[in-house]
Design goal:
By secondary structure, this protein is of the alpha+beta class. 21% of the residues lie in helices and 29% in strands. The protein is built from two helices and four strands, in the order E-H-H-E-E-E. The chain has helices spanning 37-52, 64-71; strands at residues 23-29, 72-80, 83-90, 97-105. The protein has a four-stranded mixed sheet with strand order 1-4-3-2. The radius of gyration is 15 Å and the shape is globular.
Amino acid sequence: KQWYQRRVRGYVVADSNIDSYNDVDLIFGVNLDEDDSFKRVKEAVGESLLKLLPERVSKIRLRSKMMVDAYVNKMVKVAQGNDCWSLMSLHNEGGCNVELKFVDKMRRQFEFS
């Protein structure tokens, strides 16, 4: 499970007067060649969400699948020809989403539709 545990540094450059955003896109380069790659990405996202819960939350009965079911409002998987990528959109009650994009290869760079 080490393949998803890379540290990512991000910087946001914006006018200091801007307090809102529509969504945040995070793009990860991954190898999706194996048959179970998409399943492993989904499990990694669920496990990460589980780890991000506050310490006061009891995690005894929680599983990564439950976290995906609760927080992911859109999942796309494309594996055909020169396209091999996955998108998971994490819902926020305020309407601002975090979109996790896992890319092995794309015919047209940054075209997630």
